[in-house]
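Anyone able to model this chain together with BIS(adenosine)-5'-pentaphosphate?
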Amino acid sequence: MRIVLLGAPGSGKGTQAKLLVERYRIPQISTGDLLRAAVSTGTALGQQAKAAMDSGQLVPDEIVLGMIRERLSLPDADNGFILDGFPRNLSQAEALDRMLEEMGRPLDGVLLIDVDFDILMQRLSGRLTCESCGAVFNSYTKPPRHDGVCDMCGGNLHHRADDNEETISNRLRVYEAQTKPVAGYYESRGALQTVDGEGEIGRIFDSVVASAERLLEGAKTRAAAAP
Ligand code: AP5
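re: yes, here you go
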């Protein structure tokens, strides 16, 4: 399975991607996580990315594309992958097509997680992430059993630096202007499924799995029809 999870900040891409990893045993490749790791280790690339991330703007394409190419070349991506947060504009989508064509591994399709904008702000301002294992909680919608402590590994929970009101508003504006058109790009070739991302996480996951399976079937049909 080679799919993209598309959706606004806070729509649940990371939450659903982690469940897909458990189900299908393929890696989650999150450009946000890769960039945050580069920022925290202080690499030159991380230093270049930091200002854009802090303000909620997109990091320049050449940085993100280099990172994705390197990550997709690792052996664990041979049997499939879930791209989370990439592509994020039309030029990244076109570059991804070229990259996967060169690798002989075309995308099965894209899953758009649709959530009302009013809900996103609350989800993001309440998000808590484990510093050790990356598990995600929410002080409003999915609180940990003990304040500030991860249920899974006992690690510390923290708020992401870009989950403040001003940066969230910028991220939502950037999504509307630059990332939303990516859905149309895939829809026009019959490779988009939309899932309602509001409600219980497990129920959404059932829809995500059903939609991902439809994308796989569609990709097989397109491949069989190709000359
Ligand atoms: P990135 O890390 O990708 O952040 P994002 O797209 O803003 O998405 P989030 O991680 O905030 O949300 P999510 O959809 O994963 O939601 P989650 O599952 O955590 O990007 C960060 C920055 O990096 C960007 O601003 C940009 O600067 C840069 N960047 C990244 N990729 C780039 C690229 N390709 N090009 C250029 N720049 C790039 O859920 C959110 C919260 O809601 C959690 O607390 C969760 O528990 C809760 N929740 C989830 N589902 C539900 C539900 N059904 N009901 C109730 N609560 C729920």
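The chain has a mean pLDDT of 95.
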